Amino acid sequence: MKMDTNEPVLKVESLGIRRSERWLFQDLTFQLEPAEVVQVVGSNGAGKTSLLRCLCGLLPYAQGEILWRGEDEGFIPLYIGHLPAVKPELTVFENLSLHPIAGKFAHDMAIDEAIYSVNLPGYEDELAKNLSAGQTRRVGLARLLLADTCCWVLDEPFASLDVDGCRWLEKQVSGYVERGGSVLITSHQSLNLSQQPRILELKRQALEL
Amino acid sequence: MIKTLLHRELLRHWRGRQDLINPLIFFVISVSLFPLAVTPEGQLLVQMAPGVIWVSALLATMLSLESLYRDDFHDGTLELLLLQSGSHYKVVIVKIISHWISSGLPLVLISPLLGVMMHLEGETLTALLLSLILGTPVLSLLGSVGMGLTVGLRQGGVLLSLLVLPLYIPVLIFGASAVAAASMGMDYSGQLAFLGAFLLASLSLVPFAAVAAIRVSVR
């Protein structure tokens, strides 16, 4: 994990996102500091997923500024979205080792450890199409253990996970933050982390932080 | 990253090869129908063969375009690939190359057999092979732009045809013309040079258009 400075990992100023003719939100300003968790909450349609996709450069924004580590582009957080990005034709191991981002620096042993950590030992050579939705989600989340980045952007990561899976993820997020990482997460459930997350509440046309 | 992605794409295509065998079977069957429906007479088949084989190859490529981005779009891989700053073009190029290797190359390899069935011989078969080697990558490249634009649409197949088929026309003209010229004993290097120029031009320009098209769909 590369953490060279104490400057905010993410600085968002006066951000506004439009969908068709409607503003999802306007004048959104917040920062994500090193070793901090910010939980984005809000009702359905408030723009949580759009905010995360916008921050990662997948969605254009109508106004404002997004600065990742003081730069306006070039930094890539680890983004795990609604969809697990797991290929059904590949095995669990191949999905991690041949992943263009997470698999880039991962060694076989690290991948085996990640598979063990997400409670899928024995499934290394199983095609992903034979896994359940929760197991597929776990394969997607195993990338958290392989990628070398100082920020995770997680969109509803608890979806499809059982109780053990949720606890495992909370533990991973807590450990990551203790090591200096920053996490921006959307979730409808309250998180049980070692460090209390800062809440960013999105409301249509209004914002409370 | 390129090596990993190419390995991954080829492995995926190999494991899901049924999707790629279907266009190949379509190619073989559609060419085979012409001698049955029109005439088995050799001289007429030689005249028809360039157009028949090239149109069939073009339609078979259209059928296989679905495998280019559709699955990646629906399982979230496409947006992950777009996240990689500065390497979008490499990603698109790798995906197109793997698409051509798994769908275009089999068409090229089986084409001499179909050429023999259509009574083509000697230099004409060579022209057919060379024109398809140069032309089918262009079909994959141009198709990637149309597929990028329509990947998010539920019924994108018809729109894909409307977008892509007009772009295929120059390739079809020069490809079929090269084979026709060879069958008449004429020089066909000019047509091949045009196909080569199409390939280089599309190789350098299409990835930019394809990335822009995918970005529109992912939004």
How does this model look, in words?
The complex is a heterodimer of chains A (209) and B (219). Chain A has helices at residues 48-55, 92-97, 108-117, 133-141, 163-178; strands at 10-19, 22-32, 37-42, 63-68, 78-80, 151-155, 182-186, 198-203, 206-208. Chain A has 209 residues and is of the alpha/beta class. The model of chain A has no long low-confidence stretch (mean pLDDT 83). In chain B, α2 (18-37) packs antiparallel against α3, α2 (18-37) packs parallel to α6 (88-117) and α3 (42-64) packs antiparallel against α6 (88-117). Chain A binds chain B through residues 53, 56-60, 73-76, 79, 81-90, 94, 98-101, 103-104, 127, and chain B through 1, 4-5, 7-8, 11-12, 15-16, 71, 74-77, 79-85, 91, 218-219.
Briefly say what this structure is:
The complex is a heterodimer of chains A (209) and B (219). Chain A is 23% helix and 26% strand. Chain A contains five helices and nine strands; from the N terminus they run βββαββαααβαβββ.
What's the structural blueprint in terms of helices and strands?
The complex is a heterodimer of chains A (209) and B (219).
Chain A: E1 10-19, E2 22-32, E3 37-42, H1 48-55, E4 63-68, E5 78-80, H2 92-97, H3 108-117, H4 133-141, E6 151-155, H5 163-178, E7 182-186, E8 198-203, E9 206-208
Parallel strand pairs in A: 3-7, 3-8, 5-6, 6-7
Antiparallel strand pairs in A: 1-2, 1-4, 8-9
Chain B: H1 2-15, H2 18-37, H3 42-64, H4 66-75, H5 77-82, H6 88-117, H7 123-150, H8 156-183, H9 189-218
Helix pairs in contact in B: 1-6, 2-3, 2-6, 3-6, 3-7, 3-8, 6-7, 6-9, 7-8, 7-9, 8-9
